[in-house]
């Protein structure tokens, strides 16, 4: 084909080859890109030669000093001492210079934002702000950074980092993802070497007893704990004096395989790196309302990129079951509780159900706010360091609230007091956790419960509060004439998920709109592994979801019946309804299913047995079973099977997940032949595609 007009593009036409060795035509002039690449290569070569020359000169100078006479060596040492004295005098004369020198020695992720702020203040018209910033913010932050580093790197951690090739552990917050991956391989190899040594030492017999293997696991887990990483299945396998359940020895093989796996170590070290990095940024006063509220810019961008990659992954995969049915994975994810809109709607439906239950029982609603003591807060509202901060992490502040609430709940149960409701965990501007709780209780118990909760909320560091405990604990009785309980909690539910419905409402904590702050809050919860929402005193919501799946499947199995809105039921519809059978034969269980199907959480709670009922007395529970195929580490995980009821027994459980789905990568949208017809670039020819499409 010689006519270029028949081709998709004119430049696809056949050209006469040119041999520069046989033709008389002058050589083609190199392009600008080729010239630029040649200059770049030449410049890189010159820089490499200069670096090697400087290295050789420094080495020769070092050896010349070592081999010179003592008098010259003393003179050089005295010159260095005099230089150090001059620097010390300069720092005494101008202490700000010392602060700036210390900032210059920080890691890049700390140095760059601090220097950027310093340069901005240098260019400002009012020069008085720079000394104030250096003395009142940067200088205390440098001491806080050193203290946080000392807390992060314990003696056992430093001892582990002193092993061969593990010195990069001391720079863990500074490493990027590729460096962490390389380090995780070295750590896994080191743990594997210890495992082999323990096997040679302890497993002398071919058939070792489970007790010996458990002892081997515990000794290997001790090595893992030195790196501030919790070993897998540690709580289930560690030695306890008050153990209630027998030890599950089947967990040991999978736990040992994980501790020797580089991929497992990469996830753990990357998580530890992010947490340590964030705490150092908090110590440097870079996480607060005037800089970056709730979480640093670094983590915010990282979580945003992680979310983008996850959505790209979902778009490129399908879910296929054993029958060949295919579902778009992105549609499945967006239809689940992972969708913020669905998550918010389900939570508000649950809160509305609690409100209706409380109205039916005659209970009152109280809104509580509980805050940590001042020693857990890193930064003041004006952006300056908090002098009472004891270098506690965000995770430690969350653990404080959990432990306090557990102690209060134990004391409340001893007094035979009960309540139900929901609590929301959200961050202060510096990342410290505080709780909002919407609780329902009997009116006669309200004052007793409130005073008991106040006593537990303010008992730590009580002296710093004086007579006013409002900074640590607040309570508000909800007046139905002013607003419903659901309306009180709706703002906190939305601002901690996606900010939907808040519009341009400004947050008093950050000074920004609540909708813009939602991304910061979700990144904060993901980084520090904080459970944002928790319902208590009511049946579990997972059984509610499984019942809705069961009802939806039963509805799809019904024969299709056409019925116009507003018309009377036809004989065909009446016959179809007469032949329809209940999904669950037991009337009590079928009533729970019907309540979940229509989405009435109040009726669902009532039919399950009501609020403040022990979990074992609920009518319907979620059923679980081991997975059929082993996972990456050879153990069988647990998956949701369906629902079961104590009325019928576990042997009569109902399956809500009848199919097994597998991820399959989607095929490319266009084949090579279609791309060539459109003039797009195609894949290179191989033995498999080196023929026209119609001849394959």
Give the topology:
Layout: H1 32-67, H2 70-93, H3 95-104, H4 108-123, H5 129-152, H6 155-161, H7 177-202, H8 210-225, H9 234-237, H10 251-259, H11 262-283, H12 297-315, E1 317-320, E2 326-328, H13 329-334, H14 340-361, E3 364-371, H15 394-414, E4 420-427, E5 433-441, H16 446-458, E6 473-477, H17 485-495, H18 514-528, E7 533-536, H19 541-557, H20 571-579, H21 587-598, H22 601-608, E8 621-626, E9 638-644, E10 654-655, E11 662-665, H23 672-677
Antiparallel strand pairs: 1-2, 1-11, 3-5, 3-6, 4-5, 4-7, 8-9, 9-10
What attributes does this structure have?
nuclease; Replication_gene_A-like; single chain; disordered C terminus; 9% strand; alpha+beta; three-stranded antiparallel sheet; five-stranded antiparallel sheet; endonuclease activity; 11 strands; 5 domains; globular; hydrolase; 696 residues; 23 helices; 51% helix
Structural class: alpha+beta
Compute the number of helices: 23
Give the overall pLDDT as a whole number.
Answer: 85
Largest sheet properties: 5 strands, antiparallel
The tally of domains stands at: 5
Radius of gyration: 34 Å
Would you identify the CATH architecture of the largest domain? Answer: 2-Layer Sandwich
Shape: globular
Task: Tell me which oligomeric state these chains represent.
Answer: single chain
Which strand order do you get reading across the main beta sheet? 6-3-5-4-7
Q: Quote the CATH topology of the largest domain.
A: Alpha-Beta Plaits
């Amino acid at each position: 084909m010689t006519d270029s007009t028949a081709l998709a593009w004119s430049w696809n036409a056949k050209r006469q080859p040119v041999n520069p060795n046989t033709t008389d035509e002058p050589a083609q002039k190199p392009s600008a890109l080729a010239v630029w690449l040649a200059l770049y290569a030449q410049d890189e070569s010159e820089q490499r030669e200069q670096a090697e020359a400087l290295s050789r000169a420094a080495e020769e100078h070092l050896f010349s000093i070592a081999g010179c006479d003592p008098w010259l060596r003393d003179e050089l040492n005295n010159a260095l001492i005099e230089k150090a004295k001059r620097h010390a005098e300069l720092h005494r004369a101008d202490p700000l210079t010392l602060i700036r020198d210390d900032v210059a020695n920080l890691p890049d992720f700390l140095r760059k934002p601090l220097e950027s702020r310093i340069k901005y203040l240098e260019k400002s018209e009012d020069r008085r702000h720079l000394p104030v910033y250096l003395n009142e913010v940067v200088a205390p932050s440098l001491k806080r950074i050193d203290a946080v580093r000392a807390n992060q790197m314990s003696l056992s951690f430093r001892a582990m980092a002193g092993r061969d090739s593990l010195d990069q552990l001391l720079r863990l917050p500074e490493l990027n993802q590729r460096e962490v991956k390389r380090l995780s391989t070295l750590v896994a190899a080191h743990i594997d070497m210890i495992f082999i040594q323990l096997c040679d030492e302890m497993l002398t017999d071919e058939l070792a007893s489970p007790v010996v293997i458990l002892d081997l696991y515990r000794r290997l887990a001790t090595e893992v704990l030195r790196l501030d990483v919790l070993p897998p299945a540690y709580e289930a396998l560690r030695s306890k004096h008050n153990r209630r359940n027998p030890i599950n020895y089947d967990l040991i093989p999978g736990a040992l395989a994980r501790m020797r796996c580089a991929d497992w170590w990469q996830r753990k070290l990357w998580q530890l790196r992010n947490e340590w990095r964030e705490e150092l940024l908090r110590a440097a006063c870079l996480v607060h309302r005037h800089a970056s509220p709730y979480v640093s810019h670094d983590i915010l961008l990282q979580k945003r990129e992680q979310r983008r990659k996850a959505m790209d992954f979902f778009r490129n995969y399908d879910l296929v079951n054993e029958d060949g049915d295919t579902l778009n994975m992105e549609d499945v994810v967006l239809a689940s509780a992972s969708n913020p809109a669905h998550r918010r709607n389900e939570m508000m439906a649950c809160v509305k159900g609690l409100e209706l239950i409380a109205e039916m029982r005659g209970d009152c609603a109280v809104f509580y706010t509980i805050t940590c003591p001042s020693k857990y807060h890193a930064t003041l509202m004006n952006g300056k360091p908090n002098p009472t901060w004891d270098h506690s992490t965000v995770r430690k502040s969350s653990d404080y609230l959990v432990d306090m609430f557990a102690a209060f709940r134990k004391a409340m149960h001893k007094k035979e007091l009960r309540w139900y409701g929901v609590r929301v965990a959200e961050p202060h501007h510096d990342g410290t956790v505080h709780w909002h709780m919407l609780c329902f209780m009997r009116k006669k118990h309200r004052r007793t419960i409130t005073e008991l909760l106040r006593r537990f909320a303010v008992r730590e560091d009580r002296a710093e509060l004086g007579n006013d405990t409002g900074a640590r604990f607040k309570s508000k009785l909800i007046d139905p004439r002013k607003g419903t309980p659901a309306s009180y909690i709706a703002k906190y539910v939305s601002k901690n998920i996606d900010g939907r419905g808040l519009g341009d409402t400004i947050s008093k904590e950050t000074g920004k709109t609540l909708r813009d702050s939602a991304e910061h809050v979700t990144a904060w919860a993901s980084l520090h592994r904080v459970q944002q929402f928790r319902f208590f005193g009511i049946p579990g919501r997972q059984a509610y979801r499984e019942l809705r799946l069961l009802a939806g499947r039963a509805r799809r199995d019904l024969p299709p019946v056409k019925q116009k809105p507003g018309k009377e039921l036809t004989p065909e519809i009446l016959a179809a309804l007469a032949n329809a059978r209940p999904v669950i034969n037991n009337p009590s269980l079928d009533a729970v299913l019907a309540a979940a199907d229509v989405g009435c959480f109040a009726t669902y709670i009532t039919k399950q047995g009501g609020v403040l009922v022990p979990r074992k007395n609920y009518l319907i529970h979620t059923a679980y079973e081991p997975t059929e195929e082993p996972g990456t580490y050879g153990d069988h995980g647990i998956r949701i099977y369906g629902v079961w009821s104590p009325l019928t027994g576990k042997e009569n459980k109902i399956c809500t997940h009848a199919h097994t789905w597998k991820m399959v990568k989607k095929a490319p949208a266009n084949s090579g032949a279609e791309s060539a017809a459109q003039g797009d670039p195609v894949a290179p020819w191989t033995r498999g595609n080196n023929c026209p499409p119609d001849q394959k």
